[in-house]
Design a protein that fits this description.
CATH superfamily of chain A: Carbonic anhydrase
Largest sheet of chain B: 5 strands, mixed
Radius of gyration of chain B: 22 Å
CATH class of chain A: Alpha Beta
Keywords (chain A): Lyase, Metal-binding, Zinc
Number of strands of chain B: 5
Oligomer: heterodimer
Strand order of the largest sheet of chain B: 2-1-3-4-5
EC number (chain A): 4.2.1.1
Number of strands of chain A: 7
Number of helices of chain A: 10
CATH topology of chain A: Beta-carbonic Anhydrase, Chain A
Largest sheet of chain A: 5 strands, mixed
Distance between the termini of chain A: 24 Å
Family (chain A): Belongs to the beta-class carbonic anhydrase family.
Order of helices and strands of chain A: HHEHEHEHHHHHHEEEE
Helix content of chain B: 40-55%
Strand content of chain B: 5-15%
Protein name (chain A): Carbonic anhydrase
Bound molecules: zinc ion
Helix content of chain A: 40-55%
Strand order of the largest sheet of chain A: 2-1-3-4-5
Number of domains of chain A: 1
Order of helices and strands of chain B: HHHHHHEHEHEHHHHHEEH
Structural class of chain A: alpha/beta
Catalytic activity (chain A): hydrogencarbonate + H(+) = CO2 + H2O
Distance between the termini of chain B: 24 Å
Shape of chain A: globular
Strand content of chain A: 15-25%
Number of helices of chain B: 14
Largest interface: A-B, 114 and 139 residues
Chain lengths: 236, 312
């Protein structure tokens, strides 16, 4: 097994995952193959610690995703624009969620005066602009981590503004009640906080801590096991 | 060809990471997505979250870094908040507002449950995550909602740096994707870059439709260019679906080439012998990833005749 590595691991566990999913529900993959109708467009950071579908507790088919460095929404970026257009106009998602996160490397880079190099400095320009627009407030924060959190929030606020100015989004808000949300994922505790930007405004924040009566569901445990180089799902 | 021996040695770098921590796959929600039946029945559903791709597999696959898998057997039963409206569409327009509110609440509810689960299983889980990231992978995939990278590969939070766009394209003038590659290779020093496409890609289909799609035109044009590069081969495939499937594969191969054409990849490989670039295709019919077995060394060599960005 010492020759195993994460690459082989990923392919192998995919094999097991697919087998288990099909075993558990023979209709799962045929249903997936028939098309997608996600309710959520997620715009987030590429950071490996923010796997959207996992942290949202959702399933394949639920979340249409674009992730880039520091979840920057730049109005002239053709990549993001294409994603937004496709999700809002063609798939007709019901929510657009722009989500930043704590301890973001992009935020830290934007707060620094050193050159990152390559194409990155150009990409980070909008985030630098956020920094300079809020220089005083940011300078007043003495703690480095807290300052990075604050610029991440301001970045989401700026991004939501760009989203709200997008014509496809404006049309969808007017015509079918599309909602736009600005959130922050706290890597230190795993929770997403609704920052209240977007269609709902400040009062609409719903990320409160006192979650209403949650129905608890228990099921069978299963785990992936390697035997002789093959992976399989074991249900206990 | 991908060289397993080459990269095996990189594993030790991660020995202090938190990979024993389990992850949530939220498979319990499977039926509510796949079926229209949304009622949750205790005991029927695979709860898995952690079990599925977490501890045991990682431990076994990566015995260099993790010795014990016994912790999984004692983990608490995962809990999931129920939801009654996961995939239904509202039938009455008067319900729309209520429905939208509920479906958004669902997100925060699921997230709270997930966070609580992780913490119950490993109190240090988030503290370790917050300490930094050291991903082995850069995943470049389609935005399509049906292909969450982590769930289909069993990778944990912290394992894969992710960029997803329409039809998993890597265009040399796209600052967005180029910045992702730059950061992942030069700053995070990922060992593998996976370009993952999928059969039945709506982006690829849209690109081959004779229609003006506005702001999508410049983006989707890249797929038409892939077709033009492989026109003979594709035109020779009589059946339409088979032709699309092949176009999906060729698109992945071309995007892998585009990744290899970048300066960070060429320079890092010259110096470190990584990253290695892989092309995969995900199939919805069976949920399996197909490795297109791109010969990285050969492609790199090929490309550098014209696109060499190393200093020699
Ligand atoms: Zn980030
Ligand atoms: Zn696609």
């Amino acid at each position: 097994m010492s020759q195993q590595d994460t690459f082989l691991y990923a392919l192998s566990s995919n094999n097991a995952w697919a087998g288990y999913k099909a075993h558990q529900n023979p209709n799962f993959f045929p249903k997936l193959a028939s098309g997608q109708s996600p309710q959520i467009l997620w715009l987030g950071c590429s950071d490996s610690r923010c796997p959207e579908t996992v942290i949202l507790g959702l399933q394949p088919g639920d979340v249409f995703v674009h992730r880039n460095i520091a979840n920057i929404i730049s109005p002239t970026d053709i990549n993001t624009s294409a994603v937004i257009e496709y999700a809002v106009v063609h798939l007709k998602v019901k929510h657009v969620v722009l989500c930043g996160h704590t301890s973001c490397g992009g935020a830290a880079a934007a707060l620094s005066d050193t050159r990152v190099g390559g194409v990155l400095d150009t990409w980070l320009t909008p985030l630098k602009a956020v920094r300079f627009a809020h220089q005083e407030e940011l300078d007043a924060i003495k703690d480095d981590k807290a300052r990075a959190v604050r610029i991440a929030e301001l970045n989401v606020e700026a991004g939501v503004k760009v989203l709200m100015a997008n014509f496809a989004i404006q049309d969808a808000i007017r015509e079918r009640g599309l909602e736009v949300h600005g959130c922050l994922f706290d890597i230190g505790c795993g929770r997403i906080k609704d920052l209240g930007f977007g269609t709902k405004g400040r009062n609409g924040a719903s990320g409160g801590l006192n979650g209403s009566s949650e129905e608890v569901v228990r099921g069978k445990h299963a785990q992936l096991a390697f035997r002789g180089g093959n992976a399989q799902m074991i249900v206990r | 060809m991908f060289n397993a021996r080459l990269v095996a040695s990189f594993l030790t770098r991660q020995s202090s990471s938190s990979r024993c921590a389990t992850k949530l796959n939220s498979f319990s929600r499977l039926s509510s997505t796949a079926n229209t039946t949304t009622q949750l029945r205790p005991g029927v559903r695979f709860c898995s979250s952690h079990g599925s791709f977490g501890t045991a597999s990682r431990t076994a696959a990566n015995s260099l870094t993790h010795q014990s898998s016994s912790s999984t057997t004692t983990t608490p039963t995962p809990r999931f908040a129920s939801s009654s409206n996961s995939s239904s569409s509202s039938s009455s327009s008067s319900d729309v507002a209520m429905y939208l509110k509920q479906s958004h609440e669902r997100v925060f509810e699921s997230n709270r449950t997930w966070a609580a689960e992780q913490k119950a299983r490993d109190p240090e889980f988030f503290a370790k995550l917050a300490a930094g990231q050291n991903p082995e992978y850069l995943w470049i995939g389609c935005s399509d909602s049906r292909i969450p990278a982590e769930q289909i590969t069993g990778l944990e939070p912290g394992d894969a740096f992710v960029h997803r766009n329409i039809a998993n394209l890597v265009c040399n003038t796209d600052l967005n994707a180029m910045s992702v590659i730059n950061y992942a290779v030069q700053h995070l020093e990922v060992k593998h870059i996976v370009v993952c496409g999928h059969y039945g890609c709506g982006g690829v289909k849209a690109a081959m439709t004779a229609k003006d799609m506005g702001i999508l035109n410049p983006w989707l044009r890249n797929i038409r260019d892939v077709y033009r590069l492989h026109e003979k081969e594709l035109d020779a495939i009589p059946e339409e679906e088979a032709r699309y499937n092949r176009l999906v594969e060729l698109n992945v191969i071309e995007q892998c080439r585009n990744v290899i054409k970048t300066a960070p990849v060429q320079q890092s490989y010259a110096k470190n012998k990584f990253p290695i670039v892989h092309g995969w295709v995900f199939g919805f019919h069976d949920g399996l990833l197909k490795d297109l077995e791109i010969d990285f060394e050969a492609v790199l060599h090929d490309i550098q005749k014209i696109y060499n960005l190393t200093d020699n």
